[in-house]
Amino acid sequence: MRFILIPILLSNLLFSIGGVIIFNDGTTIEGDVTGVNKNSIYITPMGLTFPEEIRMENVDSLKLYDGKLLVANNRTLLLYDNGQFYEPGISLESNDAFDSDYDVEYVIVPNWSMNFYSGYPIIKGSTFDYYDDINPVFGLSIGSPYGLFFGDFFMNVISEIAYYEFNVTANPDYENFAGMAYQIGLSPGLFIGETSISLTACTGKYHAGPGFIGGGSIDLPVGSYLLSNFEDNDFIQNNSDFIEALEVRLTGRANTVKKNDGTTTYWLGAGISLGYEF
User: Do 133 and 266 share a structural domain?
Assistant: First the structure.
């Protein structure tokens, strides 16, 4: 038995790569991946010695620590054996196997995200003529992994809370236009490489009644830029997972809101959004 265990342990040490398996129910397992075939993933969970077999039908995605995706959206992108990556349908013995530096194309993995938005109204409805103290609008949105994901296209459910405040300094007794907005909606989008273009359509309750937001964003891959251009920096290396999950978006929004007097007003704003995927 000793002579059988030693080769197994050596194989696990020599040909293992760190990664995270995300199951269909959203739970995860993290450890050293020793093999991936069409039917199973073999992973040694953190704190354990021997690999466990995870059936592929239970797996939503498998992401390595370096950002490579071997499984995404229940689809096997690459197989892994004895330190080599190769495409499904290609024999490991063929010359088409890839080494560990093989660059995997970006694939959408549904997840949760949190974005903090700050913007300023640049075009305002005529009823805003009363207000001369226009403050920035702040918002916090939560993106969910629930929706539709087809190749580079996605459309997921989002929710948002926002705060706005517009005042009249010349007449302190005049009712200001301020309050919280609570909204829910959809965000369809499209990936072009690692950059995404997305739209936002939300509706909900503002301080005086119902309102609607429609907007668009360009997601800049700031995390990937930092990792690729400052990879020798100790801070970047030690926080690579966190930095890779950062999002920076340039955002434009149109708000249509009901007022206390029953009329409707609007404003168009532009701003920036900082987010994190988890």
Answer: yes
Q: Comparing C-alpha atoms, which of 79, 75, 83, 68 is closest to residue 14?
A: 83
- Residue holding tokens 């301080």? 207
pTM listed for this prediction:
0.59
> CA-CA distance, 77 to 170, in Å (whole number)?
63
Is 98 inside a domain boundary? no
- Which tens digits make up the pLDDT trace of 237-258? 777 777 777 888 999 999 998 8
> Three-state SS for 175?
coil
**What are the pLDDT digits (tens) for 199-234?**
999 999 998 889 999 999 998 878 777 877 787 788
CA-CA distance, 103 to 68, in Å (whole number)? Answer: 7
Sequence-distant contacts of 23-26: CB under 8 A, at least 24 apart? 23/58, 23/59, 23/60, 24/58, 24/59, 24/60, 24/74, 26/60, 26/145
Residues 144 and 191 reside in one and the same domain: yes
Q: Which domain holds residue 71?
A: 2-86
Asked if the structure places residue 108 within a domain, the reply is: no
Q: Collect all residues with Cβ–Cβ distance below 8 Å to 177 and sequence separation of at least 6.
A: 131, 164, 165, 166, 167, 259, 265
Report the 3 state secondary structure along 32-87: EEEEECCCEEEEEECCCCCCEEEEHHHEEEEEECCCCEEEECCEECCEEECCEEEC
Q: What domain count does the chain have? A: 2
